[in-house]
Amino acid sequence: MLIKKPARSDLSEAQTTSESAYVSRRSVIKGLAASGVLASAGVGEKAMGLDLFGGKDEAKQAPLKPLEFTPQKPVPDLVLTPEDKVGNYNNFYEFGTGKTDPAKNSQGLRTEPWTIEVGGEVEKPATVDVWQLMNEIGLEERIYRMRCVEAWSMVIPWVGFELGKFLKRFQPTSRAKYVAFQTLYDPEQMPGQRNRYIGGGVDYPYVEGLRMDEAMHPLTILSVGLYGKTLPPQNGAPIRLVVPWKYGFKGIKSIVKIKLVEQMPPTSWNKMLPQEYGFYANVNPEVDHPRWSQASERFIGPGGLFAVKREPTLPFNGYGEEVASLYRNMDLRKFY
Ligand code: MTE
To answer: What keywords tag this UniProt record (predicted)?
Structure first.
């Protein structure tokens, strides 16, 4: 694929500021006629050149609700990926393997009501109503870099809460060493689960896992929104995992089950191709994927296709200061 270097003007401060101003506006202006806000956002989306990402025949977008949350202070080094690209360049194989398939095929996903069953090695197992939880847990914005194992990246303003704080409610026992997650299994709603060709040969339901200390780390969140609104279905509505120092495939979408367990749980990509995708999946520019280099990435930011910028990949996706100590004494080539 031909990648042209962007002009500096493609990543101007003005664009960054306007995206983030948009986000904080959403959090503070409560009671503002939502339709007015959404209409002005729509104009911006068109102007961003969405067509390059195949948005022409996109399905009618499922309605999203504005969320109340504590905004994050602006992160000066990070340029946000525009909202239309976050929602039109996705991996959600339950809805097809093409990058625009999830946006086209997931808009009918029924996300209300939605519950998560939390169990396993906990004193107080329970089934949680996700929409009730959103109202009472206290949501915060987290602007994170997101690095896909396929060597593209985005910067996304998530809205969510710390997974660790959530898990403590269920009182993990001393035997809890790992956390296992599971996506909805509903072949009627998810065409990729009905047909192996559409679903990329993944053994469904999609499952993921974290070590307990990774799950309890304050950077690890369960996200219920982005850009100030509830999650679009293609991004994992109504609730998905975000672990910013790991490859994006750890960020399991549309979660229905969380189980604390003693043994390392199976994970979807590791089951399918163990020599290519490990359990840890920490972003590491020094450990290449067997079929491509991980030394750099294509940043999907503001501007058209030619503004996609190749950047060096950072160890732990730039979060090494916070998380490298979790892997002290581990050979990261072996535990990839
Ligand atoms: N979760 C489920 N259930 N199914 C998937 O196919 N794809 C993963 C992850 N979570 C996936 C999933 C991959 S490979 C990536 S890179 C991220 O979701 C993409 O998240 P995004 O589409 O919100 O950017």
So the answer is: Metal-binding, Molybdenum, Oxidoreductase, Signal
